[in-house]
Specification:
It is a single chain. This protein is mainly α. The chain has one domain: Alpha Horseshoe (Serine Threonine Protein Phosphatase 5, Tetratricopeptide repeat), CATH 1.25.40. Helix content is 83%, strand content 0%.
Length: 103
């Protein structure tokens, strides 16, 4: 965690650093910091499919199913626009699963 934080301090707009920090925060369930880091990552890299997928999964893990669904839907639109078919398929599958859990 400290290495990721230090890296982001040096390179605050770096995709790799922001993604790594968000994932480290997810591991320790620091949801507020995790979500704000994913939001920054995706504001800077709107077509980054892995970011959308893991942001949605972290939101789901936090217990916010509606938030998860909303994020995954945004991720679908973003990956469709960017042409990232692999991430699009993963996000679509995760969205279907999240929607099934709501029923």
């Amino acid at each position: 965690m400290q290495a990721a934080q230090a890296y982001v301090l040096k390179k605050p707009d770096d995709r790799f650093g922001l993604y790594t920090l968000a994932m480290e925060l997810r591991k320790v369930k620091e949801w507020t910091a995790c979500f704000s880091t994913f939001q920054r990552l995706l504001a800077l890299n709107p077509g980054y499919g892995a970011g959308w997928y893991h942001y949605g999964m972290a939101t789901r893990e936090s217990g916010d199913r509606a938030g998860c669904i909303s994020i995954l839907r945004s991720g679908l639109a973003a990956t469709e626009q960017s042409g990232d078919k692999h991430a699009h398929a993963e996000i679509e599958s995760a969205l279907e699963e999240a929607l099934d859990e709501q029923d």
